[in-house]
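Protocol step 4 of 6.
Sequence for NADPH:quinone oxidoreductase family protein (Comamonas faecalis) entered exactly as in the expression construct, tag removed. Do not edit the line below.
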Amino acid sequence: MHAWLCTQPTGVDALTWTELPTPAPAAGEVLIEIEAASLNFPDLLIVQNKYQIKPPLPFVPGAEFAGVVRAVGEGVKHLQAGQRVACLMGTGGFATHVVAPAWRCIALPDGFPAVDAAAFIMTYATSWHALMDRGQLKAGETVLVLGAAGGVGTAAIQIAKAAGARVIAAASSDEKCELCRQVGADAVINYSQQDLRETLKALTEGKGPDVVYDPVGGDFAEPALRSIAWRGRYLVIGFAAGPIPQLALNLPLLKGASIVGVFWGEFAKREPQANAAMMAELVRWYREGKIKPVIDATLPMAQLPQAYARMGSRAVKGKLVLVN
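Step 5 output, C-alpha cells:
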C-alpha cells in the first residue's frame, strides 16, 4: 500500500507519498481499499499542528473516506469482505488502504457512489447535529448560513431547506452566492460587497434570523449575533477564518438568545445510538434526493498537495475529493 505520511506536523510540504506494509485487521477492525477520500478543513489544521486532536507521529491524514472492505477482523459481524462502506476515522484516508474500527464504518446502499460517500459523513452529520439537534430548527424559521458555499455550508443549506426553513446564505463572492442559490438558498448575501447587518435587516423585515449557522468565526460573528432574532440560536461550528471571536455577553442577553456549541465528533462518541439514528436518516434523505454533496473537484490521490493548496486559497465550493 501507499500513503501520504506526516512525520512532522509542520505543514503540507512535510507530507511524503510512502510505501508501507499493508496491515491486517485486528479484532473489531476491517481492512478497506480506499476508492475516494475527501479533504476537510480539519485535514489542513492537523498537518499544521493546529487541530484539537494531535495524533501520534507518524500519521496519515485524511479523516473521511469510502471504499471496499477487503478483510474483516475477529468479531466483526455487520460487515463482510466485498462490502462498500464510508468511514470517518480522523486520520488514515489519504492512502490506498487503511485499517479502521468496524463500528466507525457505514455500510453503503446500492446507488451511493464512492465520491459522494467520501464527502458525506462529516459535513452532513455536523450540519444535522447543529441545526436539528442543537439548534432545534423548526419549519418556517429563518436560518443564516455563514461560509455557505463550503462543504458544511452547502450541507446546512440543504438540511435546513429539507426541514422547511427559509435560508439566507452568506458567502464571499457572487460566484459562491450563485452556487448557494443552486443548492436551495432563498436569499444570498455577498459579504465582501454588502453590509451583513443591514442586508439581514432588509431580508427579514427587521426581525433577524432565528438560527445562525457559523463555521467561520472571524469578523462576521459579532454582526451576525447582533442581528439575531428574539429567542434566536447562534450555532458555533468552527473558526475557518482563523481568529476566535470575542463576543460580548450582553448581546445574547438583549435578544433572549442562546450561543450553542456544536461538536459533532464528541456527540457521536457520547451518544452513539442517537448518532446512528441520525446517520440512518441522512442516508434515507440522500436516497430520496433531498440532499447531495456538492463536489468542487475530484483529483487523483497523487495530487493531494494541489488539493491542499486549493483549500488554503479559499477557492473551494463544496468538497474536494481525492480518488485512487
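Step 6, annotate. The domain at 2-120+293-323 is CATH 3.90.180.10 (Quinone Oxidoreductase; Chain A, domain 1).
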